[in-house]
């Protein structure tokens, strides 16, 4: 599998967000050709984030993804592949532990396989990627809502992760059936946006919370990159919602009306702002500092979910932020992997945790457009 993975030299040649600006845009055939513009800082303060991101030599791929890490990733992906259903109505979904038949976990599994270098129909897990896309497409109803019939945990979280996976597959294959499902899924998200600018658990226009909202923002961003139309007014409205969700200490809260502020919510909020081209300013600096202060105090119930977003935030921040962050979470995950290759997770199941852990560890590979710098 190692011949599929990038080297430090190939990553340096590609540059920031180069997949979207070069190969990706050509392959996708979309109008969103080129990197997102770097928006001006919202405040004159907060330049420390830029300083840490730009004035430090970043660790190379070989320094980040050690041989031990590559072996852990390979073991995790191998275990995950054994948990994929081969027959029946849940064909392509994952296992019996946790949320069996979840479209969201299926989407995360597909992202994990693609993040390791496999593409639809090609590579060590090409068949598994195809199976993920097929299950998600089959689970997309006429209105675009993605949820497996009979699965009681279907909601807009699952819809968002499933849509994100479909967008990556569609961008690589241009398969008609995948594109049709993706467009319906995007239409469902657009129709459910609240007046506040966010989304809630169900595919209807109602209230909003930050966690579900960021999941939809990333799905829309990925779909737009793949050539699906997402109106600018939708993007502007949801990013404004995220900005309004930040507290004075840099953290992000659950709803505009209040609620808890957590490591996971703050990481998710930052990633959505980075995805919108906002890289500097007090909003970014204070959020990164909050994550740094809470690095060893991640909410146990949201450990993998929180670190899934945190590693993306630090990847985009770059420099010292990234140099300090990735080795720390890498060592935590290496220590937590079981002998089977899985990462244990009582709340949402081992398939969920293993997919998340593989995505986190593979971030330096820079394989997926949605995670590209």
Overall geometry comes to globular
For the record, the count of structural domains works out to 1
- Decide which structural class fits the backbone: mainly alpha
State the assembly state of the protein chains. single chain
Main beta sheet strand tally, sense and closure: 2 strands, antiparallel
| Percent helix range | 40-55%
- Total helices: the number is 17
Secondary-structure element order, as H and E?
A: HHHHHHHHHHHHEEHHHHH
Q: What percent strand?
A: under 5%
CATH class: Mainly Alpha
Total count of strands: 2
CATH topology: the name is Glycosyltransferase
Whole-number mean pLDDT: 87
| Unreliable segments of 5+ consecutive residues | 9-50
Distance between the termini: 24 Å
CATH architecture: Alpha/alpha barrel
* Order of the strands making up the biggest sheet: 1-2
**Rg estimate, integer Å:** 19 Å
Tell me the layout of helices and strands.
Elements: H1 8-14, H2 18-21, H3 23-28, H4 48-54, H5 61-64, H6 67-82, H7 103-115, H8 126-138, H9 156-173, H10 176-192, H11 210-225, H12 232-244, E1 253-255, E2 258-261, H13 263-275, H14 282-293, H15 303-317, H16 319-336, H17 350-361
Antiparallel strand pairs: 1-2
Helix pairs in contact: 4-16, 6-17, 7-8, 7-9, 7-17, 8-9, 8-10, 9-10, 9-11, 10-11, 11-12, 11-13, 13-14, 13-15, 15-16, 15-17
């Amino acid at each position: 599998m190692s011949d599929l993975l990038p080297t430090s030299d190939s990553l340096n040649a590609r540059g920031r967000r180069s997949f979207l600006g070069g190969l990706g845009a050509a392959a996708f055939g979309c109008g969103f050709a080129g990197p997102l513009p770097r928006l001006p800082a919202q405040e004159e303060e907060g330049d420390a984030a830029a300083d840490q991101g730009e004035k430090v030599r970043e660790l190379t791929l070989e320094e980040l993804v050690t041989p031990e890490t590559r072996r852990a990733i390979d073991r995790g992906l191998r275990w995950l592949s054994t948990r994929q259903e081969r027959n029946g109505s849940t064909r392509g979904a994952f296992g019996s532990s946790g949320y069996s038949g979840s479209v969201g976990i299926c989407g995360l599994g597909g992202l994990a396989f693609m993040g390791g270098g496999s593409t639809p129909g090609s590579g060590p897990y090409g068949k598994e990627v195809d199976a993920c896309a097929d299950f998600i497409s089959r689970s997309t109803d006429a209105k675009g809502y993605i949820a497996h019939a009979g699965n009681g945990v279907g909601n807009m979280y699952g819809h968002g992760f499933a849509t994100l996976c479909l967008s990556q597959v569609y961008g690589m294959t241009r398969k008609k059936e995948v594109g049709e499902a993706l467009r319906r899924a995007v239409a469902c998200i657009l129709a459910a946006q609240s007046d506040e600018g966010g989304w809630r658990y169900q595919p209807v226009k109602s209230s909003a919370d930050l966690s579900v909202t960021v999941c939809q923002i990333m799905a829309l961003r990925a779909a737009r990159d793949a050539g699906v139309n997402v109106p600018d007014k939708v993007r502007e409205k949801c990013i404004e919602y995220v900005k309004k969700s930040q507290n004075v200490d840099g953290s992000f809260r659950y709803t505009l009306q209040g609620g808890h502020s957590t490591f996971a919510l703050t990481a998710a909020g930052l990633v959505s702002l980075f995805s919108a081209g906002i890289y500097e300013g007090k909003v970014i600096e204070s959020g990164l500092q909050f994550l740094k202060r809470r690095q060893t105090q991640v909410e146990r119930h949201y450990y993998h979910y929180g670190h899934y977003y945190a590693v993306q935030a630090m990847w985009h921040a770059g420099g010292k932020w990234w140099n300090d962050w990735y080795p720390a979470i890498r060592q935590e995950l290496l220590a937590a992997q079981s002998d089977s290759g899985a990462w244990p997770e009582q709340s949402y199941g081992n398939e969920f945790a293993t997919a998340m852990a593989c995505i986190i560890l593979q971030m330096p590979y820079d394989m997926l457009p949605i995670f590209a710098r």
